[in-house]
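Input set for joint prediction.
Command: fold jointly, output tokens.
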Amino acid sequence: MTILLYLIPTALVLGGLALTGFLWALKSGQFDDLDGAAQRILFDDPEDNPPKK
Amino acid sequence: MNALLDIAVPSGAACLHCGGAVSAGESYCCNGCRLAHRLVSDLGLDQYYRQRQFDPAQRRPRPEGDLQSSDLSAWVETRDDEATGEQRAHMTMMVDGLHCGACVWLIEQALLRQAGVTSARVSLSTRRLTVSWQPALMTAEQLASLVESLGYRLVPVAQDCLRNRDEVELKSLLRAMAVAGFAAGNLMLLSVSVWSGHGDMAPGTRDLFHWISALIAIPAVGFAGRPFFKSAWNVLRHGRTNMDVPISLAIILAPSISLYETFTGGEQAYFDSAATLLFFLLIGRYLDLRARRLARASAEQLMALGGDAATVIAADGSLRDIPARDLKPGQKALIRTGSRVPADGTIVDGESLLDVSLISGESMPATATMGSQVYAGTLNLTAPLTMKVDKIGEATLLADIRRLMEAAESRRNRFVRLADRVSRYYAPFVHVTALLTFLGWVTIGHLPWQSALLIAIAVLIITCPCALALAVPVVQVVASHRLLKSGILLKSADALERLCEVDTIVLDKTGTLTLGRLELQPGYNPEALAIAAAMAANSKHPLARAIARAGGDVIPAGNVAEIPGKGLEWSSSQGVWRLGSASFTGQADDESSDHVLWLADPSGKAERFHLADPIRPDATEIVAELARIGPVEICSGDRSAPVRHIAELAGIATWHALQMPADKVRRLEELRAAGRRVLMIGDGLNDAPALRAAHVSMAPTSAADISQNAADLLFQGDALRPVALALTVAKASERLMRENLALAVVYNVSAIPLAICGYVTPLVAALAMSTSSILVVLNSLRLNARRSSKRVTEYTAGEAWEKAAPTADKMAQTQRAGL
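tokens >
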């Protein structure tokens, strides 16, 4: 049963990673503009983008 | 009619900037577009033209003529940047005229190329532009006029409305939901191992699993359960109880007693039940809040687009935008073409036409010249005006209407939602059952209190209404989605439940039974129309607009002069053409109707155009359907003759004409006193108080902003069909909500005896809970599958979008903006 010692932490860590990822996405505004995000990908970033300070 | 040669013919080509019609040989429809196109090229953003897709529901990106920069400083927030310590100005504006991602890209890139702009972000869902810049290098006005010169309209939005409470609450619910979901999944993994290993598993391993479960469950429940604890604590403090009390009890007691069990090496632990229960409940809570938030967001957006700003002319002639409520009597204000009069006052400069239909229901515009009295809320149609403010705020006609609305609102009966009514009885029942179970086992069954408590918790968990909590919100979400697809926006969360109780329908005439706009009637000369339309395209007078609309895509004729109150005069190569009233064109005044226009050629020969506000195409049919629900009547501010005419056409026997806003409210109150539940449908400003006084109300999206705000539902398009559809969907969803609640209650109640007898192990609890929730969700989804009854044939999604009024997309956007 020592396998449990690996499997349980692994399961928890994987789940925890997904949870952290979701919470990060929520916090950083990834869900704020779903329509815009879908369209934004169609446009190139202009090469001469102004430097952002 | 050989003057047709003089009329520029649309060349079929499209304006390079806005895509509108242009005359042969031209590349642009107007100078604004030429400048905008050059601006885009200079910025190196040509990609915009290749990738954009026009959305027919939106206005074309044609820069407006009278761009005047006014002071925006009231909407700019300046603070020090934390990272660099530099000053940063921030401003949020609502953008009108967004078509697709290309518009978003164009605005963002154009702004980012300006000196000092540090970030620019346009949200396509909420139609908001947020821009930050270094105030030393740029002014807000420069940035705004840049975007406006590209052809978009901007409305400033106060920053604090963005950080509203709902949004924060929704996010925290979502966070709690994620945590609860994570905990529930992992706990289930561990619990399933314990259940399947029952009998074979060594007690040591089982205890280890329980310990790990405790480690996950206790912090997770503590974090994710806060919304319930808070609400339960709030009602308990006031000596009342709601469904959140037993929920909180269950999710606190279950892990605590399980922890005790784990300490003592017991067999049963309810960690997973607590987490799963919490997860399901949070889903319900989230959906419910989201529905209410959507309703509120749409109201806010309407307010913002309505433009509550006034432009004040200072003594030195400079302009400043301020909120209309800050106007003071004696101040001079500029009323731009196409904007609303901000306060009651007197015109001191300019001559124009005012659309007063929102106040009086009268469809003909009134002339405003020096000395005319104007009222807040009327729309300036043709030329800029300068007014002196006489009355503000509480003293205006608009404020009178608002007061009537508030009074009506306060008398509106408080509506207790179905779910609340059920839980009002259910919560005490749950408490009492659990308590009796505990006492029964201790006193009669002589069990130690820990075991008795375990059984009592099982009762709490099994009766806990996770299905009950999902029963109503899920139906609400499915129904509002279905309605939105048919062009109906649900504005208040309880509108569906209110709609089901309707037994009387009161309609306004202008704009509700009729389209609320003038249409050219058959029997005109098509050649004459081509000339008239080219002339009329120069004017904003409603009669001229109707002629121009009937003429299709035309190029405005040059050299057209507008003579207020009379008509239009066009100096062509062959002489002067006139379009206007009978007296203006030298015709005998053959009838009293207001809605006749004449076109006279240079020789004086004239053609006649008759215009009318037509009844909605399906009005008669829908009224017949509505009559099956209850009596239908008309309450209109118009004169008797037109009201009777429309009533006859629509087949309505009862009608009231010449109704002032207060009369309409009185009529609705009479009906309510007689025990009727009234659905009021209206669009004008004069209907707004009545919309609030009714049990439930609907307004078309062409309605006055204030009426759209007052109404519980909005519908779009030229048809009246959505009214019948909304009623059908409301009835169907009410039935589903009841079914769901019954299902949940029956399911839970039938499991109670098992729980009381102590047969409910954690496994049974988990099964019972999940199946009842899944049943409820599946049952709700039937609303989508269900075809409407034969009587009310349905509007498919495609049809609705095709017929959509210009606001169609805005509505969908508003709806989406909720999240």
